[in-house]
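Hey team,

Filing this mostly as a record. A colleague (T.K.) asked me to run one chain through the structure pipeline before their review meeting, and I want the input and output archived in the tracker in case anyone asks later how it was produced. No errors, nothing strange. Just documentation.

Input sequence:
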Amino acid sequence: MTLQHRQQHGQVGCLYHSLYALLGDEALLEHANDVSAPRYYARLAAAGMLVSSLWCTEPGFSSTPTAFWESLRRRFTAASPGGAAHAPLLVNIGGATPGWLHQVAVLLPISPGEDIVHVSDSNFHEPLQFTWDGFLHSDYAQAYRVEMLGPADLDAYA
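Output structure:
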């Protein structure tokens, strides 16, 4: 999987830019200035997407510890033998405005031997790459929310 990437213009837009990075649907960017989380989740549901929360807390509480990322990587690797090289995630870190979150797209390496973490942060012109250790020591591993997209289809979860 390859991240699509666009830099956002202004202070808002990360919700839809991170989705665009994972899904590649440019129509998502039409909503970039809409900061309403309920409308964001409603649009995902209308598009047939299910959001699964893997970690969720608020600024001021503990962010994701290293053990969370290591456990998540092991779990995804075990669930995908010989399959995908990366797990696509939506990751929320502390934003520039106190109390706000900033959402980025992350491709977590889950294939044996794969060690590169890809990050699409719409604050930057180009996507970012980290070694696994570099990611664990970056701001992107200090997340308040980690989510995974899946289809909103009962048959997909047999």
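Quick notes for T.K.: The helical segments are 14-23, 37-46, 66-79, 132-136. The mean pLDDT is 91.
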